Structure formats: C-alpha cells, structure tokens
Amino acid sequence: MKQMRPLFRRILFVMSFGLLALALTLFFQGVWAALVITNLKASPAIPWAVALMALFLWLGWKYASGKWRPRSTAAGRRRYLRANRVSGRVFGWAVLAGALSLVALVGYWIVMFQLVKMPGNHLPDFSRYPLITVALMLTMACLYRKFHPRTSGQNLTWSMNSILTRLSSVPTNATLRF
C-alpha cells in the first residue's frame, strides 16, 4: 500500500502550483502591457512591440512543447500542452460553435443592457496612431490572448487537475480555473 503524504503537504503543493500559474500569467500580461505602452510613447509609427511579443510567444510555445531544459520535465510539458492539431471537420464545428456562442452572448448582452443601466466604456483615442500600428497591436493582443493561456495558465491548471486526481483518487472537475 502506498504511503500517503500528509494532507497539509498536499494542500501546500496544490496551492504553490496555482500561485505559479497565476504568477506566470500576470508576468506575461505585464510584459505585453509594458511593451505596448513603451512602443506607443516612444515610436508609434513602428510597431516593434508586436514583433517582440511574437518572439516571446514563440519561445514560450517551444518551451511548453518540451523543447530545451530541463529535460526531466519535457515529457510532462509536452503531455500537458493542450493545443494539438485537429481535423478540418472538428475545427469547422468548433468555429461554428464559437460563432453561435457569440450570437447568444450578444443577445444576452442586449437583454442585460435593457434591464440594467451601464455606463459606456472609455476607450483610448486610437486616431493619434498609425492604422498599421493599431491593427498589428490589436491582432497581437488577440493572438496573445488565444495562445498564451495554452502555454502557461491553462496548461498549469490542467496539470493541477491531473495532480489533484492523482493525489486524491477522485476525478477533479475541469471547471477548476482562475
């Protein structure tokens, strides 16, 4: 029979794993925000922050897919990288489901807007910046939002689900998110 770790040690392990995921997510969001602010203040005509963030995302993707050291964690990183190729048919259904969920969300938003008074959002004045800079930065923000969680926060969250299942012998719920 396996010896079980004390409950406190298991709880501490899971909490530290969650804090690591949160720290990584906040770090990369802070880096992107600092790059955008610096780029827009220093040289808005040249969107160098986009190229730099693309490099960071590529490096993070390579690391999460099992490249580089430490080799002892490479297999685990590859296993928990959830962004894998899917067939065109599956991808098509996923796009359709996403589009329909957006339609439902817009309908819900319209109903809630009618029921509850909400102030409008104050957006920055993008007209001061070149169109290409704004377009590239918005595109990178979308790509960052889509790919970064696959390599850090959600990846660590799914890893935590797996660890919790192993530690408790009870399947954990995939809704464990932060």
| Helix and strand pattern | HHHHHH
Structural class: mainly alpha
Helical amount? over 70%
- Rg computed from alpha carbons, rounded to a whole number of angstroms: 21 Å
The number of E-state strands comes to 0
Average pLDDT for all residues? 76
Compute the number of helices: 6
Residue fraction in strands: under 5%
**Shape summary:** extended
User: How many angstroms does the end-to-end distance come to?
Assistant: 34 Å
Low-confidence stretches: 150-154, 170-178
Largest beta-sheet details: none
Describe this structure as you would to a colleague.
With 178 residues, the protein is mostly helical. It has a domain at 7-84 and 131-168. It is 70% helix and 0% strand. It has 6 helices and no strands. It has helices at residues 7-42, 48-64, 74-80, 88-115, 131-151, 153-168. The model is unreliable at 150-154 and 170-178 (pLDDT under 50).
Keywords:
178 residues
Compose a concise summary of this entry.
The protein has 178 residues and is mainly alpha-helical.
Question: What is the secondary structure topology, with strand pairs?
Answer:
Blueprint: H1 7-42, H2 48-64, H3 74-80, H4 88-115, H5 131-151, H6 153-168
